[in-house]
Amino acid sequence: MNRDQIEGGLRNLKGRGRTALGAVKGRARPQVEGAYEQVAGVAQAAYGRTRDRAEHLYEDGYRLADEAASRGHRLHQEARTRGRHLRDEANRRGRELAIRADENRGTTLALVAATAFGLGWLFSRRR
């Protein structure tokens, strides 16, 4: 609850009292002034409620933005770690394959030649 809500509520009560007092005395001016104070008090209290709600929405939005930034940073770090792991694994497997190809040169040469022949045969134009 903020200052405008409190002051608006008090102003509304003051206006009600003034209106009632004017009605008891039978005087129109205090009744009109009291009604004016009531309306002004209700409007001020409504403004205070609206301001309070806007402040809460601002705080919620700020918190959500901070949480989103934190999650984004965490996801970035996880993706970076996972990418490094996958890169290291690919390098390890590539080195193993190169070692096997070097150890079995004849077989590797035959496989490369057969693959090249097969691809050439598949992509050649037929007339």
TrEMBL record:
<keyword id="KW-0812">Transmembrane</keyword>
<feature type="region of interest" description="Disordered">
    <location>
        <begin position="69"/>
        <end position="89"/>
    </location>
</feature>
<feature type="transmembrane region" description="Helical">
    <location>
        <begin position="106"/>
        <end position="124"/>
    </location>
</feature>
<keyword id="KW-0472">Membrane</keyword>
<protein>
    <submittedName>
        <fullName>CsbD family protein</fullName>
    </submittedName>
</protein>
<keyword id="KW-1133">Transmembrane helix</keyword>
<dbReference type="InterPro" id="IPR036629">
    <property type="entry name" value="YjbJ_sf"/>
</dbReference>
